[in-house]
Amino acid sequence: MTLEEAKALVKSRLSEKRYRHTMNVKKMAVKLAVRYGADPEKAALAAILHDSAKELPREEMLQIFADNDIIAKNAAERPAPVWHGIAAAILCQTRWGVTDPEILSAIACHTTGKPGMSLLDKIIYMADMTSAERDYPGVEALRAEEMENLDLALCHALERSVTFVKQKGGPLDPVTVAALEDIRAVCAGGAGRAVTR
Ligand SMILES: [Fe+2]
Ligand SMILES: [Fe+2]
Fold first, then answer.
1. CA 58–ligand 1 middle distance (angstroms)
2. Alpha carbons 180 and 157: distance in angstroms, whole number
3. How far is the CA of 192 from the centre of ligand 1 (A)?
4. What tens-digit pLDDT sequence spans the chain (197 residues)?
5. Which of 16, 87, 138, 139 has the fewest other C-beta atoms within 10 Å?
C-alpha cells in the first residue's frame, strides 16, 4: 500500500478532526524517524494507518477479533480503549495488503506500548502522544525530550498514560504496565539507545 493509498483510505474512514490528528502524527513520526535513523516511509505508513479502526463500532471490532483469533489473541479481554490499534493492524494485514511486521506491530501497540518495543514502535507511540494538536500540560517538555532521548521520553509518556488511566478509574491494560517496567529497566541500565546516533 502506498502512502497516497493509505491517506485516501483513512480519509474515507475518519472524521475530519481525526484525519487532521493522523496527518500530525505522520509529520511527527517522520521527524522522529529522521532523527533516530528509522525508515521515514515505514514511519509515515504506520502513522497514517494507526487510527484507521478508531471509529469502528465496538461490535465490529469484536467481530474482527473473533474472525482473526490467532492474530487477535486475547484482545477482546483487554480494555476497550486499546482495541482500535489491534483491530487496525488486523485490517491492514488481512484486507489492505500491509505485510511488514514492523509496521503492523507499531500500529497494534500504539495505544499501550509493549515490552521490548522496536524503534518504530517507540516512534509511533511517541508521535501519537506528541502530535501538533496535543495540548495537555507537559506536552512541550515531552516534545523536547523525545528529540534528545527517545527511551526516556517513552518512559515519561507511559508513566503519564498509566497515571491518567488510574485517575480516571478505568481498567489498566497489563501490557502498558509491562511496557513501562521494561522501558524503566532500559533507562535505568543507561542503555541510552536513543542517543547512540
Ligand atoms: Fe489511537
Ligand atoms: Fe492517534
1. 14
2. 9
3. 27
4. 999 999 999 999 999 999 999 999 999 999 999 999 999 999 999 999 999 999 999 999 999 999 999 999 999 999 999 999 999 999 999 999 999 999 999 999 999 999 999 999 999 999 999 999 999 999 999 999 999 999 999 999 999 999 999 999 989 999 999 999 999 999 998 655 544 33
5. 16
Query: What total of structural domains would you count in the chain?
Result: 1
The C-alpha angle 75, 38, 107, rounded to 5 degrees, equals 15
CA 144, distance to chain mean position in Å, is: 19
Q: Say how many Å lie between the CA of residue 27 and the centre of ligand 1.
A: 16
Give the ligand with the smallest distance to the CA of 134. Answer: 2
188 Cα to the center of ligand 2, angstroms: 28
CATH number at residue 113: 1.10.3210.10
Which single residue is written with the C-alpha cell 485490517? Answer: 91
Domain ranges, residue 47: 3-195
